[in-house]
# Entry
Amino acid sequence: MNKKVAVYVLSLLLIAIGIFGAIKIMLSKIPPPADGEMQVNSIENEFLNAKNEGVIKEKIGIIYSHPFDKKTDLLVIKNQQEIFSQSYDIDGITEIHPKKQGIVLVSEEFNFHEYELNRKFELINKKKVRSPFSFYHSDDEIEIRSFNIDVKKNIVDINDLKKKKTYQVTLPPLLIQAEYDDNFVYVFCDYIEKQSSYLYLIDRNQGKLVKTIPIAFNHANDLLIFNNKLIMTTKEKLSILDIKTHKLIYLDYPSNNITTDKLYEKDQKLYMSYYDDYVSAGTLVYDANLNLLHNKKLHFPYELASFNNGKLFILTQLHSKDPKRFGGIIASFRLEDFKKEGQMILPKKKWHIQNFAILDF
# Structure
């Protein structure tokens, strides 16, 4: 069971006694399987005495928080240096999202607010929301906010900047992620009650749900429009929707022991990050016709990842090795040759890292 789904189910059982958040934080982002414990430990052992290597040039924002502590720490690094660090009186932040004007902080736990920081990382806006987020997306064309209302429904609020429309759609939980093209917003759902997965198509012109497509495999960690196809990194097989005909096909992964995560397009190639049974990172590369070109093992512990600027960034906290002398390690890998460009040791703070984002400002 995927961690996000597991956390949702646990929350239904534990929220009444207020311990859901604590359990979620104590869980590592990607818990290693029991049969891979020795190999995971072996991989993590190699990084216990890790040092800074090379240079990570990009500006990266990193969030440390806990649902029961009204302090969230933001660390910003650039060119292998810590350029900003500050605590905010905010609890339970789990997501950091860059915008042109700064960053947005949201929570998938008990915090019913959306926070906006400017480019100087000053808190400039605190907006109350209807419930914790199930996901958040914002860019120059569209803003999509999905809220986990209760065990029966999630609500998707869409502010379509291009179409100049705002509308709301109610869907069953758990909504995982969304993507869009000029005609539709595509929302992936793991329907907990039915133990099935669906893709919901919301018409951007009508502002309403127009089609529901059953998906054979669950939990798409990421969605991406690539060469007139919607790519979904579902479990067991890659799910692919032709956005013109709405026909589905499923593509085998090159191995049964990998879990795919993030998607990225560059130079008519599709890049897909993954981790194997032993939480070791890798990248799959496909051509425009979805033929596999490369399966590159990166031999780095995988926990959180993000593609940006022709690179893959991976962060690990070596959870099985607590207590340790640092808070985590972040590394960048060039997609052109899969070489590690830089590696930086992150400072230890009161709470664990929840997420990170590349800041393009």
